[in-house]
Known about the structure:
Oligomer: single chain
Structural class: alpha/beta
Strand content: 15-25%
Distance between the termini: 62 Å
Strand order of the largest sheet: 2-10-9-8-7-3-4
Radius of gyration: 25 Å
Helix content: 25-40%
Largest sheet: 7 strands, mixed
Amino acid sequence: MHKYIPTSNAQQSEMLKSVNVKSIEDLFVDIPEDIRLKRKLNVAGPISEAELIKSMKELAKDIKTTDDLICFLGAGIYDHFIPSVVKHIVSKPEFYTAYTPYQPEISQGTLQAIYEYQTMICNLTGMDVSNASMYDGATALSEAAKMASVVTNRKKVLVSSSVNPEAKKVLRTYMRFSDIEIVEIDDKEGTIDVDLLKSSIDSNTAAFIAQNPNFFGIIEDLDDVEKLVHKNGSLLIMYVEPISLSILKTPGEIGADIAVGDGQPLGNNLNFGGPHLGFFATTQKLMRKLPGRIIGETNDVDGKRGFVLTLQAREQHIRREKATSNICTNHSLNALTAAVYMATLGKHGIKEVASQCYKKAHYAYNKLLKTGKFKPLFEKPFFMEFAIECESNVDDLNELLLSNGIIGGYNLEKEYKKYKNSMLVCVTEKRTKEEINKLVSVMGGASDELR
Length: 451
């Protein structure tokens, strides 16, 4: 019997017999021999609980978090302030241990929480309906592209190069196995090149994907884009940052068909990159093609308010060969976290967060330019992230910042070779004037130190 699997050898034999195989190895015959691990895992033997705790604490000493360092790194995941009430509520056992509500009649609390989440996402995005969430922004974006292809019966999706590079990588993986062509539209000075989009869009184009604010932090003007895309009979998919929607035009106001994004900024911790949640909202017209599930409100036979699984457009249950979505569940705990965060801050609170992000980012931007050591990479309006050209290598500059207790910005050259020595700096509402001034001081004096 394996020490972590409480089944006896006799029970294992019985289980193997029931599936018509002679050994556990027979379960893996479909995996080629040359890629199988032919030795035991290189894992140390068992230790006591006390020894394990001590070992983990030793490892943790080397880990630095945003509790220890001042963070100016964004690029898709953001260091926002999270009110303490959020953690207290989502840590309640009835939420913390809840799973997919396959039996809605005994899952009323979970269903109500998801319903509230959906309602607030609709309010935030200006769209008609929202699903119960997805894994993260990248998977939500990929599911949106696949949905657009199904709706339009077309096999090409255009995506702006100013969309988050990591999201684009997931998108390409998804579309590769769906036989959907991805065409990237190169940016023009940091924003969508409308002329290039016009020459690239055709009768086989299912959708165009735009990010706003885009990966460079720039606020896109999408009026001409929206008209061009819809004139072609294609769908407009917007990948958006949720906090910004409280002060910018919503996807609904712009005329988008699908709005997606990463819900991490809505009360979810950085979590070393995950888990987070992906929000997904669309129009009533496209509701029945929405992946995932929608929770609805109704009355029971006694006239009492209740919640139900209103829509599950997921053929995985009965017709897998016709399934349009690869995601069979939702990140309900992360979605609950987002709902508690939005309810705690309210309409005016989220707007205040956005306003502070905007003002502090512009303060940092102007202070850095005044040093004379940095130039704006783009002369465009931005929300809470901005791109600057540096005199020295960005990685070297970030090493210097780290030695001063600061997590620096994102090196754009990693994904955009044409933007050499360029840094994407993020400033959220958490950053104080003193912290921003420290960043400026260290970066301003960096040229001399890095020579």
